[in-house]
Amino acid sequence: MSLFSTSQFKYSSFKDRAFTAIGCAVAVVTGFSLPTLIVLMGHLLLKFIVFQSVEAELCGNQRLTIGRFQSEAKLIAGYMALVGLAMLLSNVIIVGSLGMSATKQSFRIRHYFMRAMLHQEVGWFDTHTAGDFAGRITADLEKIHDGLGEKIGMCLFFLSTAVASLISAFWHGWQLALVLLALVPCLVILTTGIAKVQSKLEGEESTAYHNAEAVAMEAVTFIRTVIAYGGQLKETKRYAFGFWYGIDLIVADFANPPGHRKYLTSTIIIVFFSVLMFSMSLGQATPYFQAFANAKRAAGKVYQIIDR
């Protein structure tokens, strides 16, 4: 079952759809910023290492080397600052455009829902209680707003970051990337399973909102806490192995001439943090799928009343 359908945006205007498209496009482009920062950080650290090794062997003009190092380091740091500034501005555009679109759509849906409630026949109120109306106007409409707002942009941002990080990791060192990615499929399967269970629990909680809200929310919260604390030791061992294998590749690469060496210190930093960013981005994007599924489910219930 798809997470989105055109029916979710049936009460949106052309301007709302335009703002949504702008926010989504900016979110996808912004996703490349974090992998770019990782690459720049790797090159900056390499400059420090090269400068230290050259400085130890200097016997002549030391100012020339220091001046060149400072100029190159400042240039890379300037690029990183520009990328950070671009991320700040793009996040303002993402949150502003998607938030504005979702707020207008939510207000329009509330208006139509209230009007539909007032036009229902008397027999409809005999089978529906006042709690149904309160639950729809608060819980379901809030879920619809979440599924139409900035969560779309954040999900696209994390997915774009994951794809860009994976491409960067394989581009700079596919051997080390494969080693670090060995356990990612298990992590993705586990995360997807948890998201499906949480989505099912959210659906049951929405159906029995007035009777089991506290119990359901407490159960979901404890599940998240157990999963979060249970995986830390395994992740630490995994990335420690990645660093060890990266150093082994550097040592083996010393057999090649200096101009043909592929695995440098910057390669380990870039590949390691790119894979780490890939895993983190997937983990951060998964909960948004649950919000979108809940929004689609809630929209079906609310729109059914409006169209009745």
From TrEMBL:
Keywords: Membrane, Transmembrane, Transmembrane helix. The keyword Zinc does not apply. Pfam families: ABC_membrane. InterPro entries: ABC1_TM_dom (IPR011527), ABC1_TM_sf (IPR036640), Type_1_exporter (IPR039421). GO terms for molecular function: ABC-type oligopeptide transporter activity; ATP binding. GO terms for cellular component: mitochondrial inner membrane. The chain crosses the membrane at residues 21-46, 76-100, 152-171, 177-195, 263-282. Residues 21-240 form the ABC transmembrane type-1 domain. It is a multi-pass membrane protein. It comes from the Eukaryota. One of its GO terms (biological process) is oligopeptide export from mitochondrion. It is found in: Membrane. PANTHER family: ATP-DEPENDENT PERMEASE MDL1, MITOCHONDRIAL, ATP-DEPENDENT TRANSLOCASE ABCB1-LIKE. This is ABC transmembrane type-1 domain-containing protein.
